[in-house]
Amino acid sequence: MYMNNRGNIAYIDGQNLYMGTAKSNPKWHIDLARFRIYLEQKYNVERAYYYLGYVQEGLQIEQLYETIQAAGFVLMFRQHNSAMLGKKKGNVDSDIIFSIMKRLYQKDSFQKIILVSGDGDYKMLVDFLIQENRFEKILFPNRKFRSSLYKEISSTYFSYLDDSDIQKKIQKKKLP
Description:
35% helix; globular; Rossmann fold; 6 helices; 6 strands; alpha/beta
């Protein structure tokens, strides 16, 4: 039997989050510290894992990593062989799926999963977690980039980060 005495766990597909906000039209940027607080207060997120494909070192990249960690996320990297470094997107889907399934298999102490992505590769996982009553919500970064595979999912299981009420809470404040 699962021990349900702990909070929820969030898994963030970093590339999907970035593409769904900073590359959207109109583009906007998430304040990661505010987003982490939002996840904690709204969804009782105790642990939040931010997955990225590993990128070559550089000052800008190091600052990004520091920002993610300072906001309270556990930074997880997708490993690539050296020939592929810097040549492909993060491709963290299988790592996230494996981590969630491993937690379930090992009966890790948590209540439910919150997933941040619009990628359809997670659809089978989402269906399974709903069936097992271990799924709280999928947060789509952008309603335009949400996979059509989720069209059958009940609205109780998803929200859009680009909804104006949510966006106001988590976006970076524009400097005057």
